[in-house]
Amino acid sequence: MFKQIKRFIYTKILKRKYYRTGQCNGCGRCCKKIYVKNFKHVIADEKEFEKLQYMHRFYSYLRVIGKDETGLIFECTQLDPVTNKCKIHKTRPGICRRYPQEEMLSMGGELSQGCGYHLEPIIPFSEVFDKISKKSKK
Ligand code: SF4
Ligand code: SF4
Hints:
Elements: H1 2-13, E1 18-22, E2 37-38, E3 41-42, H2 46-52, H3 57-60, E4 62-67, E5 72-76, H4 94-97, H5 103-106, E6 117-121, H6 125-137
Antiparallel strand pairs: 1-6, 2-3, 4-5
One iron/sulfur cluster binds at residues 24-30, 99, 112, 115-117.
């Protein structure tokens, strides 16, 4: 019963498609390869990013380390390179506290290799497949 209530709240009220499970193991990988989304696109232009840096302190921590087909790649300067720990852990921005969020999947992103979190579909693929099969038989 609890599972059904939880599923109802997540899918119907929160409009979620995934449960986030697991926990952070402190590997620091997600702070070493970051894409920045502005509205619906991923930033690929440094001039556009410069404007964002004034809007939120999180952006002021980032520095460009590369670019690929998705967009600019950043690393966070608040990550201690020796310990792989966040230097401002207690006051880290909300976006870091909420990581990982399922929106990253819709952007074509994925969890870092070895991340202790998992994003599991709330409605399993087999259930979706069954529903589609039943509808097509009607
Ligand atoms: S502020 Fe801390 S948790 Fe957030 S990206 Fe930087 S190092 Fe990672
Ligand atoms: S990649 Fe995952 S396990 Fe590693 S620091 Fe980021 S959230 Fe934690």
